[in-house]
């Protein structure tokens, strides 16, 4: 697999009316959607996260990685046409590319690893936009600022991260994602990063979506309730 891979963060909101369908109809819808999800996992890497009650905009966060944008497109079409997918509305969709960082010669295990190994309990993902002034400073100045930024991050090895480049592909410039079992430690990391020089160049870093890692079938069962 190439080092340059497409990353897709997709937040889906369930229409409340679906819960009022009969148990048999809901079971049929869930089975059809799970079959489409199985087909998706043959095309690309996908992990599911529950955002039930955590974001008003959505209930399921799908976190995907693929070598081809077409695989993301085809999977999205398949999922939205299958069962409960017909009752799901995308409320947030972000696309980016994983690429070698210009500030780090070689990524550590803490970086660019959110699709490898065991999943942590929580995924935090958000769009990121930097100021025009940032790009007009010299490479040496930017390297010095990022060195201080990364120094803080390395003090929190329990937090893994991924940066995907979106400029030219999507509205945001980057997709920033963190994975951890310890949200308090992650909050400490964020607080420290807000006190670094790199914060001056931040234009936008919201909405912030926090998801709880669960099997997709479990999330769907939570949304459905009893179907017997």
Shape: elongated
How much helical structure, as a percent, in the residues?
25-40%
Q: How many alpha or pi helices?
A: 6
Largest sheet: 9 strands, antiparallel
- Tally of structural domains: 2
* Overall pLDDT metric: 92
CATH homologous superfamily of the largest domain? Apc35880, domain 1
- CATH architecture classification name of the largest domain: 2-Layer Sandwich
Percent of sequence in beta strands: 25-35%
Give the oligomeric state of the chains in this entry, treating copies of one chain as homo and distinct chains as hetero: single chain
CATH topology of the largest domain: Alpha-Beta Plaits
Give the radius of gyration. 19 Å
The H-and-E topology, N to C, reads as EHEEHEEHHEEHEEH
**Name of the top-level CATH class of the largest domain:** Alpha Beta
Spans of at least 5 consecutive residues with low confidence: none
- Ends distance: 43 Å
How many β-strands, per DSSP? 9
- How would you classify the helix and strand content by structural class? alpha+beta
């Amino acid at each position: 697999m190439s080092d340059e891979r497409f990353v897709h963060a997709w937040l889906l909101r369930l229409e409340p009316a679906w819960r009022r369908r009969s148990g048999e109809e809901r079971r049929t819808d869930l089975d059809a959607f799970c079959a489409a999800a199985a087909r998706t996992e043959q095309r690309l890497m996908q992990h599911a996260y529950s955002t039930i009650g955590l974001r008003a905009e959505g209930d399921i966060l799908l976190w995907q990685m693929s070598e081809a944008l077409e695989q993301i497109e085809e999977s999205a079409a398949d999922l939205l046409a299958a069962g409960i997918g017909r009752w799901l509305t995308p409320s947030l969709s972000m696309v980016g590319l994983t690429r070698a960082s210009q500030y780090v010669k070689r990524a550590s295990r803490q970086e660019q690893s959110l699709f490898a190994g065991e999943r942590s309990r929580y995924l935090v993902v958000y769009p990121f936009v930097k100021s025009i002034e940032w790009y007009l400073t010299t490479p040496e100045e930017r390297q010095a600022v990022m060195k201080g930024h990364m120094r803080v991050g390395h003090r929190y090895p329990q937090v893994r991260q991924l940066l995907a480049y979106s400029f030219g592909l999507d509205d945001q410039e980057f997709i920033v994602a963190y994975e951890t079992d310890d949200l308090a430690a992650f909050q400490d990391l964020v607080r420290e990063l807000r006190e670094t020089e790199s914060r001056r160049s931040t234009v936008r870093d919201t909405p912030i979506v926090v998801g709880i890692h669960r099997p997709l079938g479990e999330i769907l069962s939570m949304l459905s309730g009893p179907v017997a």
